[in-house]
Write a structure and sequence with these properties.
- The complex is a heterodimer of chains A (246) and B (480).
- Chain A is an alpha/beta fold.
- Chain A has one domain (2-244): Metallo-dependent phosphatases (Purple Acid Phosphatase, chain A, domain 2, 4-Layer Sandwich).
- Helix content of chain A is 32%, strand content 22%.
- A 6-stranded mixed sheet of chain A has the order 3-2-1-11-12-9. Chain A has a 6-stranded mixed sheet with strand order 4-5-6-10-7-8, with helices on one face.
- In chain B, strand 1 (11-12) and strand 2 form a beta hairpin.
- Chain B has 480 residues and is α/β, with parallel strands linked by helices.
- Chain B is globular and about 80 Å long.
- The relative contact order of chain B is 0.08.
- Chain B has 3 domains: 3-102, Phosphorylase Kinase, domain 1, CATH 3.30.200.20; 107-324, Transferase(Phosphotransferase), domain 1 (Orthogonal Bundle), CATH 1.10.510.10; 329-468, 3-Layer(aba) Sandwich (Rossmann fold).
- The chains are: A alpha/beta (246), B alpha/beta (480).
- At the A-B interface, strand 9 of A face helix 1 and helix 3 of B.
Chain lengths: 246, 480
């Protein structure tokens, strides 16, 4: 089975469309959305409705911290994120809100764990940014592979049978075998707001039969997505950062 | 079930264990065959070659390098292809992990060690095959990092590299570096920078191949058989005895090649295995330096200085395999020496000069083809009693003077052929040329009917081709 993993779309219609186009050419059997459909970007309705359509056809969709903050504002968020969510709330209808309220924090699927932020406290939204937080997450689950998002920086952590943990920066379109004698924590980069100084959208494909994970960078129309953010009157820095990829 | 409980005739995931092979230090090996038709197993590969199953010996308390090395091999072999590695069939897990790969029938280099010293020509031939195999693997982003005679198998006319358990793929996680703090390798063969923990330099494999060549040519190991890691460090300051000290039959060109491979600083070795293979295949072209004439090792002063530096040595920054290779290409300049092509020759020199300016480790091979009417029937001398072959060689060297390339980085070849384009293409393929620079003489009615040499080279060459034209002059036809 080939699974497309998409996360942190953040209302970016252009980036999501580009990734789904690529996935459409990649013989995908199942879609897994790891959360954060809204916030930052100017097309929250399009993104939520696209994800809802996929869920209706069997996709998995999880809750992200920005989605949760639509329902219950999170005072820890940055001003720009807070402002963008205020704006987003005014755009969503009852069906969209009901969809968000129905989302789960995590999902286990045959030795794989899907979660937005981490495995140790999914609802507290701690970031997996280094070996320490990665080890906390790896220790908190028995799943052989965990897939999460939240940091907007693609990264692959792995733990050997002897308990040694290491990280790896995945290379665009290089097949990585997730060997069976090791446990893996894959942080999938962001579709809608990459922060690794590379503006192209990021998603990943997992081939379960071959045990191979492939990170993919997809170029998209950044200018249009950025212009829509400005036109919507959202904080201007949210538009600039798309071109820089940070 | 443990590896040593396996029995003949047992079937694992569609593979029947036929016969047990000699066990290696870290794994059991079985010749296997499919129980069903090819393509029905989980690999889905229609393999019709002999196969072997490798099952690592995982016992309680076993050295973790067995486990991690096996993971690494599984990762890397699945990514490699071509004639110089065993073909990967599948990997699996039946309480024990295993991999199934092509069974490589041939002669292990290890079996030749009893017959050392070997004649220089044989050492060079084996070395060239192994270097080509290394280059093929390096081009696929992999550094072997445990090259030794037991990991090289000579099959038909080429070398096959096996056992990638300590290898590094520069686009995949380096499981070995992450699991082990110190140096990982095999004492007699490990490169100095590997001793320091640098696992990112393809020139480490060139060092190990140098140790193998040294052994084959002299019957001696240049650094002995150190067991402890602390002893491995010695090669950071102590250079080996020159091979001719053990065997006077080692010609200067072979000593030059071997000692260049064994240079302590990777920057002083061959930049790529393809460049090494080239020298091994062209002994008369090897540019001899002080290395060729050495009778003794370095004096105490030089050694003391290196020792002092090595005390605080840290591995250099991580390099990128493909990057190292692309900085050290082999460039072929195919030169037309006809008198009317002088402007074209100038333009060719300018184009080659630009490539050399951006790729300082590049190597240039200048080629000219003497077109003969029929092979071997033309007289060896022209009407004035000159040897046209030698004459071309002189002109070729004259042309290249302006490139100001060091003599160890440039070679000259004149071929005789009825088909110049085919000769250029065949040579480019044989020596793994990365980039051909060739001139186009412009268009003429005759050329349109017969086709041009450059067009044929562009169409059939195995690498990048740059076609150079002389500068356009006002008033000339735009079709030139």
């Amino acid at each position: 089975m080939r699974i497309a993993l998409l996360t942190d779309i953040h209302g970016n219609r252009e980036a999501l469309t580009a990734c789904l186009d690529h996935a459409g050419r990649s013989r995908i059997d199942r879609f897994v959305f790891l959360g954060d459909y809204v916030g930052y970007g100017a097309d929250p309705v399009f993104v939520i409705e696209t994800v809802m359509e996929h869920v209706a056809r069997g996709a998995v969709a999880l809750l992200g911290n920005h989605d949760a903050a639509v329902i219950e504002p999170d005072p820890r968020m940055t001003d720009a994120a807070f402002t963008a969510l205020d704006w987003t709330r005014g755009r969503l209808g009852p069906a969209h809100l009901a969809f968000i309220k129905g989302l789960r924090l995590s999902c286990e699927d045959g030795g794989r764990l899907y979660v937005h932020a981490n495995a140790y406290a999914p609802g507290e939204w701690g970031y997996v940014t280094g070996l320490y937080s990665a080890s906390k997450s790896l220790m908190a689950t028995t799943a052989q592979a965990t897939f999460c998002g939240h940091t907007h920086v693609p990264m692959l952590f792995h733990m050997s049978m002897t308990g040694k943990i290491a990280s790896f920066e995945p290379v665009d379109r290089v097949d990585i075998p997730l060997t069976a004698r090791r446990r893996w924590l894959a942080v999938i980069g962001s579709v809608g707001q990459p922060r690794d100084h590379h503006p192209a959208a990021c998603y990943a494909i997992l081939d379960t039969a071959r045990g191979i994970l492939t990170y993919i960078r997809v170029p998209y129309d950044v200018d249009t997505a950025a212009r829509k953010i400005r036109d919507a009157g959202l904080p201007i820095e949210l538009s600039f950062r798309l071109a820089e990829g940070y | 079930m443990a590896a040593h409980d396996l029995t003949e005739g047992q079937v694992i995931d569609g593979f029947r264990l036929d016969t047990a092979l000699d066990p290696g230090g870290m794994a059991n090996f079985w010749r296997v065959s499919r129980t069903g038709p090819a393509g029905t197993d989980k690999a889905g590969v229609g393999a019709d070659f002999p196969m072997v199953m490798k099952v690592p010996l995982l016992r309680r308390g076993e050295d973790p390098i067995t486990i991690v090395g096996f993971e690494v091999e599984q990762m890397i072999l699945a990514r490699l292809s071509g004639a110089h590695v065993p073909r990967f069939v599948t990997a699996g897990d039946f309480e024990q992990p295993y991999i199934v790969i092509e069974f490589v029938a041939g002669t292990s280099l290890k079996t030749l060690l009893d017959k050392t010293p070997l004649p220089p020509e044989e050492v060079a031939a084996i070395g060239a095959k192994t270097a080509y195999a290394l280059h093929d693997v390096h081009r696929q982003h992999v550094i072997h990092l445990d090259l030794k005679p037991s990991n090289v198998i000579l099959r038909d006319n080429e070398a096959v590299l096996i056992d990638f358990g300590l290898s590094r793929h520069d686009q995949l996680p380096d499981l070995i570096a992450e699991e082990f703090e110190g140096a990982v390798g095999t004492g007699p063969y490990i490169a100095p920078e590997q001793v320091l923990g640098d696992r990112g330099d393809p020139r480490s494999d060139i060092f190990s191949l140098g140790v193998i060549l040294y052994f084959l040519a002299t019957g001696e190991r240049p650094f002995g058989e150190p067991q402890r890691e602390a002893e491995w460090r010695r090669r950071l300051w102590r250079d080996p005895q020159p091979p001719r000290r053990w065997n006077k039959g080692v010609p200067p060109w072979l000593q030059e090649i071997i000692l260049r491979c064994l240079e302590i600083d990777p920057g002083d070795r061959y930049a790529t295995a393809a460049q090494l293979a080239f020298d091994l295949a062209h002994p008369t072209e090897v540019a001899l330096t002080r290395r060729a004439a050495r009778e003794t090792r370095d004096g105490i002063g030089a050694v003391a200085m290196r020792w002092f530096r090595a005390r605080n040595a840290r591995p250099a920054r991580r390099r990128n395999v493909a990057g190292q290779l692309s900085r050290a290409p082999i460039i072929m300049a195919a030169i037309d020496l006809a008198p009317e092509a002088e402007k074209l020759a100038d333009a060719l020199a300018a184009a080659v000069g630009r490539l050399l300016a951006t790729e300082p480790d590049a190597r240039v091979t200048c080629v000219n083809v003497l077109k003969t009417a029929r092979l071997a029937l033309d007289p060896l001398e022209d009407a004035e009693g000159r040897n046209p072959h030698l004459q071309r060689l002189i002109e070729l060297k004259h042309w290249a003077r302006r490139l100001a390339v060091a003599s160890d980085r440039i070679t000259y070849h004149v071929f005789e052929s009825t088909d110049p384009a085919a000769a250029v293409i065949e040579y480019a393929r044989n020596i793994q040329v990365d980039h051909i620079v060739i001139g186009a003489r412009g268009s003429s009615t005759l050329r349109r009917y017969l086709g041009s040499v450059s067009a044929q080279v562009v169409a059939e060459a195995p690498c990048t081709v740059t076609v150079v034209r002389p500068p356009h002059q006002v008033g000339q036809s735009a079709a030139a």
